[in-house]
Amino acid sequence: MPHSKPGLDKMSTLTSLIETANNKGYKENFMVQDDGLYAPTTEIHYLPNEVTIDNFYRFEGASNPDDNAILYFIETHDGIKGTLVDSYGAGADMLITEFIKEVEEIHKKEAESKK
After folding, report:
1. 75: containing domain
2. Nearest CA-CA partner of 56 in 108, 112, 110, 1
3. Is 71 inside a domain boundary?
4. For residue 79, is it within any domain?
5. Nearest Cα to 18, choosing from 27, 7, 31?
6. b (16+ CB within 10 A) / e for 85-98
7. Residue 83 lies in a domain
8. Are 76 and 50 in contact (CB under 8 A)?
9. Per the domain annotation, does 74 fall within a domain?
10. Above 50 in pLDDT, residue 65?
């Protein structure tokens, strides 16, 4: 269950938040590689100073710590918007963890409730 404010039941799963992100224009499925953040549709790599994390959500597995994940909403300096999913805790991807640590602009916005 993500850490969230009351009234956000519709945003309680990773899948539903990815759908929300897509609806808000975050369509790219970013990956982190040795060369930086990779956008598969454009085949461009970005350095940490070329991206902004607009928002992020943590999910904790109810019965299995291996189910812990973080969903990042990311925008690049040239306007590409997308998501990046990472495990955290023991299952974290160190490439992603190191990349995210180097990103200077990380914003945590209040989630919007659906009415």
Report:
1. 9-106
2. 108
3. yes
4. yes
5. 27
6. bbbbeeebbeebee
7. yes
8. yes
9. yes
10. yes
Q: What is the pLDDT of residues 26-46, one digit of tens each?
A: 999 999 999 999 999 999 999
Q: What pLDDT, on the 0 to 100 scale, is given for residue 95?
A: 92
The encoded tokens of residue 26 equal 């975050």
Number of domains in the chain: 1
Instruction: Quote the strand ranges of the chain, DSSP E.
Output: 28-29, 31-33, 36-39, 44-46, 51-59, 69-76, 81-87, 105-106
* DSSP H/E element including 19: helix 14-23
Note the pLDDT tens digit of each residue in 8-20.
444 578 889 999 9
Exposed/middle/buried for 71, CB within 10 Å: 0-12, 13-18, 19+? buried
